[in-house]
């Protein structure tokens, strides 16, 4: 009897284990079935995302290419405009330079013509308003010569001419020699530096040796100063008295003064 009971219990336990095993098999089957159903959805979602990403990249690439092409065209246009402007500026500069040269040439020609006309007017009227020299002076070549009606020592003569913004005659070029010979000047002080010993030498084109006055610590009254005497240059005591002629550079002839000074009928005949 007891053996039958033990057998019955074992049978019941076996049946319970079978039921549990069957249940667990059923649950695993359900889980695996659910998992197998969810995997295709994830794959399709991933594929869709990849497609969207690819499409987005394509759109962005197209936008980038279009923008790059547009900016390249604009850059090329700006470069063309820049080059054109630079060329125009260069041409304008060349044109202005040529015009400037022409203006300078015309101005020089006009100045020469005005100077020639003024000389003609000056020859007929020594105090014509176009004369580029102080009143009472003589216009010769490019210099103005003012002869003062007085005698003075060499040092006094230097001071008198300095007060007039001029100097004593300077033997620095042929024009001065021509003026001296033309006027037959005599006993006129020269702008030569005082010397300690008297000398004399001929007045010729070889003597362009005039020097600016250099102040000396020695007593000027005991030194010798140069003056013109006929065709020679002599040195005498600086304290002696001679004629004074002051020399200064002539100003430019003013074109307006020449034009306003012409008679209504034109140039003097």
Show the helix and strand layout:
Elements: H1 2-124, E1 138-140, E2 143-152, H2 154-163, E3 167-168, H3 174-183, E4 188-189, E5 200-202, E6 224-229, E7 232-237, E8 242-249, H4 255-261
**Percentage beta strand:** 5-15%
Alpha-carbon Rg, integer = 58 Å
Percent helix, as a range, is 55-70%
Number of domains: 2
Class per helix and strand makeup = alpha+beta
Tally of individual helices: 4
- Average pLDDT, rounded to a whole number, is 81
Strand order of the largest sheet: 1-2-8-3
Uncertain spans = 265-269
Note the overall shape.
rod-shaped
Q: How far is the first residue's CA from the last residue's CA?
A: 180 Å
Largest sheet: 4 strands, antiparallel
What is the H/E order?
HEEHEHEEEEEH
Tally of extended strands? 8
Overall description:
The strands form 2 sheets. Strands 1-2-8-3 form a 4-stranded antiparallel sheet, with helices on one face. It has helices at residues 2-124, 154-163, 174-183, 255-261, and strands at residues 138-140, 143-152, 167-168, 188-189, 200-202, 224-229, 232-237, 242-249. It has 2 domains: 1-131; 138-250, Mannose-Binding Protein A, Chain A. A hairpin with a 2-residue loop joins strand 6 (224-229) and strand 7. With 269 residues, it is of the alpha+beta class. Residues 265-269 have low confidence and may be disordered. The longest helix is centred in the first third of the chain and has 123 residues, at 2-124.
